[in-house]
Write a structure and sequence with these properties.
Blueprint lengths: L1 E5 L5 H4 L6 E3 L8 E4 L15 E4 L9 H6 L3 E3 L6 H16 L2 H10 L6 H8 L12 E5 L3 H12 L3 E5 L5 H6 L5 E2 L3 H7 L2 E4 L13 H5 L5 E5 L8 H10 L2 E6 L12 E3 L8 H21 L20 E8 L4 H11 L4 E9 L2 E8 L5 H8 L4 E8 L3
Parallel strand pairs: 1-2, 1-3, 3-4, 4-5, 6-7, 6-9, 7-8, 9-10, 10-11, 11-12
Antiparallel strand pairs: 13-15, 13-16, 14-15
Helix pairs in contact: 3-6
The chain binds 1,4-dihydronicotinamide adenine dinucleotide and 2-oxoglutaric acid.
EC number: 1.1.1.399, 1.1.1.95
Catalytic activity: (R)-2-hydroxyglutarate + NAD(+) = 2-oxoglutarate + NADH + H(+); (2R)-3-phosphoglycerate + NAD(+) = 3-phosphooxypyruvate + NADH + H(+)
InterPro entries: ACT-like_dom_sf, ACT_dom, D-isomer_2_OHA_DH_cat_dom, D-isomer_DH_CS1, D-isomer_DH_NAD-bd, NAD(P)-bd_dom_sf
């Protein structure tokens, strides 16, 4: 029986995939796996039992990836599963920044008792006139799952679209409309675009990427859309740019006590992925990742360990080892097994940065003492025996 702890409500559509081998628990200390959305895990103490965390979503800045990797806890996310939900909200944000729909709706509600509202509104409406997106320049920073969809949507709206991503994957390049112009640096986007939409992860080198210096080179009256993370934008600099008119509107899905009080901000309460479809997609993918890992040691979509799609096990036993990516590990594992006469049917080893993962299929289940020997090898973080005899 595997124990699963949900740190946020996770869509039933995904949870119902869990078989009778799984039980949800209240106590995190009992869990082998955690399912999480936006809850922060930075302040949480985890137990030795925890093997995996699946983030039902894209951003993983709420999880201490390195600390968990050192403990042999594999962290997954669900790439692309909520991208369409975010893209649609970005389009809505772009429209709300271009046309004063909110002002117009407010006027209607303030004048709803006016019997002649159908006439008075024809005079009042000039206060809510806006601009069209067609023909304007849209710059998309970060062409991952969301950025590509936003760029293509901008193109479909008749915008001239520019995109920048120094690490653009082949998969995403193939999804990108050929009418989107790729530029070499974010600076090209800052200098020439009327609308700038940011879709990068929050990392040390992306933190504060929208700041005094980058906004200074932007066009006057630029519209900035941030559906990625609040700390990508420097709030003090944004306040200044909004009050000087450099930035006409700042549309964000990540308001805080400062930005929520600024004039010129259009803010949503982190609604990008809050659609039935995105929640279902993320939950289903996250649950599958956890089940594949717990039952077969398969790693797919990990953000702190290498992916390792070893498939199902045709042997009696599978040994999985999370370890540091340092020399001489494999020879020590194989020596420990050969010392007790265990033959290896299949061995796969993968690495990602400082961490590595080894899967060994054997026809015999190693004894506790062999297991202890492997666990004691310097650099080993977590060892599991998956027994397929039952
Ligand atoms: N508002 C919401 O509810 C949601 C927000 N997000 C946020 O959006 C971000 C992006 O999500 P996805 O597109 O799914 O992730 P993704 O991983 O598919 O794409 C991110 C892209 O940013 C690129 N990138 C990294 N550093 C860059 C830089 N300095 N300049 C330009 N490009 C850079 C990467 O190469 C990658 O292609 C997430 O990290 C998360 O913070 C994601 C989902 C929902
Ligand atoms: O689960 C959510 O609503 C958060 C979505 C998000 O921000 C992400 O996937 O990065």
């Amino acid at each position: 029986m595997f124990h699963i702890k949900c740190l946020n409500p996770i869509s039933e559509f995904g949870m119902k995939e869990l078989t009778e081998k799984y039980r949800q628990v209240e106590d995190l200390g009992e869990a082998q796996a955690v399912l999480v959305r936006s809850a922060s895990m930075h302040e949480i103490t985890v137990s030795e039992k925890l093997l995996a965390v699946a983030r039902a979503g894209a951003g993983v800045n709420n999880i201490p990836l390195e600390e968990f990797a050192k403990k042999g806890i594999v962290v997954f996310n669900t790439p692309g599963a909520n991208a369409n939900g975010v893209k649609e909200l970005v389009v809505a944000g772009l429209m709300l920044a271009s046309r004063d729909l909110v002002g117009g709706m407010r006027w209607i509600s303030q004048n709803r008792d006016d019997e002649n509202i159908n006439k008075t509104m024809e005079k009042a409406k000039k206060a809510f006139a806006g601009k069209e997106a067609k023909g304007k320049k849209l710059g998309v920073i970060g062409l991952g799952a969301i950025g590509v969809l936003v760029a293509n949507a901008g193109q479909a709206l008749g915008m001239e679209v520019y995109g920048c991503d120094p690490f653009l994957s082949v998969e995403h390049a193939l999804e990108l409309s050929r009418n989107v112009s790729l530029v070499d640096s974010n600076e090209d986007i800052f200098r020439q675009c009327d609308y700038i939409s940011v879709h990068v992860p929050l990392l040390e080198d992306t933190k504060g990427m929208i700041n005094k210096d980058t906004m200074e080179i932007m066009k006057d009256g630029v519209i900035i859309l941030n559906f990625a993370r609040d700390l990508l934008v420097n709030d003090e600099d944004m306040e200044q740019a909004l009050s000087s008119g450099k930035v006409a509107k700042y549309v964000t899905d990540f308001p805080n006590s400062k930005t929520a009080n600024m004039d010129g901000v259009i803010a949503f309460p982190h609604l990008g992925a809050s659609t039935e479809e995105s929640e279902d997609n993320c939950a289903k993918m996250a649950v599958k990742e956890i089940m594949d890992y717990l039952e077969y040691g398969i790693i797919k979509n990990s953000v702190n360990y290498p992916n390792c799609d070893v498939g199902f096990c045709n042997s009696v036993c599978r040994i999985t080892i999370c370890h540091l990516n340092i020399p001489n590990m494999l020879s020590q594992f194989t020596a420990a097994l050969s010392e007790c006469g265990i033959n290896i049917d299949n061995l796969v080893n993968k690495s990602k940065g400082e961490f590595a993962y080894t899967v060994i299929d054997t026809g015999v289940i190693p004894s506790d003492s062999t297991l202890e020997k492997i666990k004691k090898i310097e650099g080993v973080r977590k060892v599991r025996i998956l027994n397929y005899t039952n």
